[in-house]
Amino acid sequence: MLSSKVTCNSHGQDSSYFLGWEEYEKNPFDEVKNPNGIIQMGLAENQLSLDLLESWLQNNPQPAAFKNDKNQSIFRELALFQDYNGLPAFKNALVRFMSEIRGNTVTFDPNNLVLTAGATSANETLMFCLANPGDAFLIPTPYYPGFDRDLKWRTGAEIVPIQCSSLNGFRITKTALEEAYKQAENQNLKVKGVLVTNPSNPLGTSLSLHELDLLVNFISSKNIHLISDEIYSGTVFNSPNFISIMEVLKNRNLMNTEISKRVHIVYSLSKDLGLPGFRIGAIYSNDKLVVSAATKMSSFGLISSQTQHLLSEILSDRKFTQTYLSENRRRLKERHEMIVKGLQKSGIRCLQSNAGLFCWVDMRHLLSSNNFESEIELWKKIVYEVGLNISPGSSCHCSEPGWFRVCFANMSEETLVLAMQRVTSFVESTVKKNHMSRHQQLLNNRNSRRTKSLPKWVFELSFNQREITVDER
């Protein structure tokens, strides 16, 4: 008696990405109450700079108290109905902040901005605007596991992977793009566009200018769309600097062209400001029809007027935003170096990265066999025995077993130190077991060769002697 949506299994909740969260919630680490619990390293959350926001709120109590700069209450104004276009003050502040993150190399028109309840809503809304049920989007692997839910579950759209390889650091190539497009055609899927995360989740790398040019050329030749999910744009802490797809369009004189109308940006304050609970997301598009339709759809997931007001005040403080972005990047870089060095001491290397709240970690040498069954086996040991919830590469649709996403910005420094100690102990134990296993296998092989080389009568005599010994006992 229920709808097919209720009874279908296309949400992706049974992915190891979500299952790891469930196990964490059953036994969460607490340094006092549960020191042996599971440490959450599967959550890409930025808790490193919340103190900066808290300090701003202490020094600027009026916005949170719903008062203006004259200390007059604006509670009623915010509490009453607001249309779904959003508060102009907030949209203006948000586009200025987006430009600031990009070094003011590009500017954004607030009239092209659609507010949504987080990036999840923004991505799904774009799917509704750009694709019909059964149409496909191409996405480079590995990609964020939540896309299987966000892009497909309610829209009926399909995902075709662009297979990227560790041989070139999982970079996008023209060959990989063409192969994915051909694969979609072979499956009788109409390709409506490409979606990329820049910087990448889970890789923690920003797209190069070469890759961005490839993407623009590709969508131009195929007459399809490009969605650039840039929610980690403010987390770039190392060179090379972040390059937005809008900057590429500007430098190639493609603004206000038909190609620019097929390029759309998703943004959020969840990662850069560490405010996922505020549900601040946005779509930026040069296509007026997309903006109009997405604005109508946003009525199903609005941002509260109170939240918009508070954030407009914070983002309008240019001195604060400049200080915040600089200090947040410094802290991310410091924490990133800490986890990379901690893993290196255990003999584990990370993909060289320059952004994000996580590392893409290579544990292929710890697999019992080179397959995804062994990857899940290793993942379960890390969750249940080591007490760390990390995300296996298979949940990110990585084509190579043995890679894992490990988050580092959602915990204290002390907790990260403990996590690294657990990893070191686990690796040392695993290496020791593997060494003993190989040693035993060598002994067995030697004994087998010796037995085969003995004359038959010696073997029979030895066998009979053992029988006599057993009978006597």
UniProtKB/TrEMBL annotation:
| Residues annotated as domain Aminotransferase class I/classII large | 39-422
Q: Which UniProt keywords apply?
A: Ethylene biosynthesis, Fruit ripening, Lyase, Pyridoxal phosphate, S-adenosyl-L-methionine
Q: Which reaction does it catalyse?
A: S-adenosyl-L-methionine = 1-aminocyclopropane-1-carboxylate + S-methyl-5'-thioadenosine + H(+)
Which Pfam families does the annotation name? Aminotran_1_2
- Tell me the GO BP annotations in alphabetical order: ethylene biosynthetic process; fruit ripening
Q: Which GO terms describe its molecular function?
A: 1-aminocyclopropane-1-carboxylate synthase activity; pyridoxal phosphate binding; transaminase activity
- Xref: PROSITE patterns: AA_TRANSFER_CLASS_1
Q: Which residues form a coiled coil?
A: none
Q: What is its EC number?
A: 4.4.1.14
Gene3D superfamilies named in the record: Aspartate Aminotransferase, domain 1, Type I PLP-dependent aspartate aminotransferase-like (Major domain)
Pathway entry:
Alkene biosynthesis; ethylene biosynthesis via S-adenosyl-L-methionine; ethylene from S-adenosyl-L-methionine: step 1/2
Alphabetical list of InterPro entries matching this protein: Aminotransferase_I/II_large, Ethylene_sulfur-biosynth, NHTrfase_class1_PyrdxlP-BS, PyrdxlP-dep_Trfase, PyrdxlP-dep_Trfase_major, PyrdxlP-dep_Trfase_small
Cofactor entry: pyridoxal 5'-phosphate
Q: Which family does it belong to?
A: Belongs to the class-I pyridoxal-phosphate-dependent aminotransferase family.
**Name recorded for this polypeptide:** 1-aminocyclopropane-1-carboxylate synthase
The beginning of the lineage is: Eukaryota, Viridiplantae, Streptophyta, Embryophyta, Tracheophyta
